[in-house]
What does this fold into?
Amino acid sequence: MRISRITLENFRQHKKIEIELNQSEKSFTVIKGRNGAGKTNLLKAITWAFTNKLAKDEIKTDPVTFVSFSALKEAGKGDIIEVLVRLDLDLGNSRLAQLERKARFVKTGPDSKDVQFSSSELTVLTSEDKGKGYQKDPNPELWLEKIFPDRFSHYFLFDGEHLHRFFKETEAAFVKKAVLEIANIDQLEKLVEHLTTVNQDLIKEAGAVAGVKGEALRKDYEFIENKIAEIDSDLNSKIKARVDLDENLDEAQQKMGDIASIQKDIALRKQLDSQAESANKRGSDAQNELHAWALRIGPVLMLSSELEKLEAEIKKAKQNNILPPPYKPEALEELLRLEECICGRDLKSSSEACTHVEALLKKFNELSDIGLTLSDLQQPLSFIKARIDSSFETLKSTQERIKASAQEEQKAMDELQTVKQKLLGNDDAHVAFIAIKYEDTKHALGRVLMQIGNLERQLEDQRGKLGEVKKLIENEAALKEKSQAVLRRQKFAQKTLEVAKELYVSFSDQVRNKVASNLNDEFQAMIWKKMTYKPVQIDEDYKVLVYNNDGVEMRSHLSAGETACLAFAFSLTLSDVAGFSYPMVIDSPLGRLDAEVKEFVSDVLANALNSEGERDGNQILMLMTDAEYNPDVAAALAHMKPKVLEIIFDEVSGETRLELVK
Amino acid sequence: MRANATVVAQGIAKFEGDEQIKKCLSALFNFELANTNVHNPQYKGKYQEIIEANAKDWNPDSKGAKE
It folds into this structure.
């Protein structure tokens, strides 16, 4: 990349200036000028255009140091002052670009210091072919970052006043940073760092979603499946049994016709049998009662007429008072004990009177017994008579009972006959067998239906459980699937990380070796004491080592000129490593060099354009003071045919102008 | 543009390993390049996205080397 033209408007001393740089193949331009003419601001303008950065952010914090003095003077309050830097770039292969950065300021008061930053803007126009106009890039910041990363700027756009510090700052860490940045290995390093973090995240994620319950759930599922198969099989056999029982029931029903009616008849027959039997028993009982009555009452009946006669006679005897009177034998017995009658007669034993009294007593006793008996007999006779009358009533009743029982039995027998007629052809035993079988079948069917119900409930229950386990398994499977996907990503990330690390090591070594080799070439091309130093090395810690032929490390002992050479060589080398040339803009490249080496360094710098690097174009712009660009230096540079311009600051107008130095 | 010219970009492009890993590395590297000046870029989501996209067609058993 080369800068072909620089346009500045309202940038510090530069009210409006256009600088055409050397267009030849080895683009070498020298802009010389007095101190304060605007050389350093030219470097600042280029740096700002490329990076949007200025020291201490001068644009916003101190616009006065950024905006053209004359523009500030001319502007009235409220006027907008636009600062512009435009770089026309040659990207090689007929590709052109125009980079334009603008910053706007508002004049807020009459004084030059009364100015405020308003806005800034970057525009990039590109042309893929020199002959075909420009197109505006939609994302100029990105375009610029690709073409010239701003972190590269300080390796190519630098103040020569700082050259003496270049390798002080460029101790190992600086060199390493520069090399890794320029080769984009730092990006690879970031990639490795980020990938390591993401890989760790993936490992954690895989761990978090790993389906550890899967195996247990699978076993549960299998167990429930087997259980369901078992219940299903049981259910099927029960359903089959039910079908068989239904068939048996149908068959029994067919055989029995209307089984209900037959059963009713059978029940009726049983009832009639029972009724007939009961009637028969009652008749039989009544007969037995009759016989018992007959046996009991028979003698009474036979004596009843005689008793009636006896009763009549007793009654008659009573009426006739022919029954002996009552007597008191105790009195006679007392007389006999006293052996003396009341009349005074001796009643001694064996006396006639005694014998007579004793006979009398005996007679009276006898008569009295009969009388008493007869008298006593009257009541029993009445009782017996009443009983006999009652017995006849009982007889009558019993006979009626016998008759009724016989009638009832007959009726039952008649009805039984009818039922038996109806049941004819249905052998009782057979019907009973079928009925029992039917009942058994019905009960069996009931049991089977109950079992089927139970099994169906169990089946439903198990299917519910299976559904739940299935859901869990699905969840688990989803987790497993997710886990597998994450694991896959993690493995992939791991592998990618390993490759990235390998590449990082490989590229780092490759670039370090390349930088060392190029640095040596560039350095050796610049220095005149070519035989003094061994090849420049960069060790693993990126420390630049310059050994003399005696093997003594000399880098810290290099002269200012040699250090400057090493610094320039390093910049050129970085450009080589970047694989893309950058314009090298150096302000006061010889400023701190001793007079005797200025000529030499300027020569080697100019010769750098001739180096055989991998750059696709070289450009050096040196901003020198008059003291730097002295006749000796000019003579030393003459063979490179530089385009030499002089910046002149007109104190009256406060503006700069350029003049070509012949 | 410039990225293609760097040692790393060229090295990745010339990498003769697993094609998916190469694509992934290239995408990650371009992401890093695009975010060079972004302080603390939110890289995790983008990395996951790139890894997922490339892991999808990845054959873990692939030896990777081109015949």
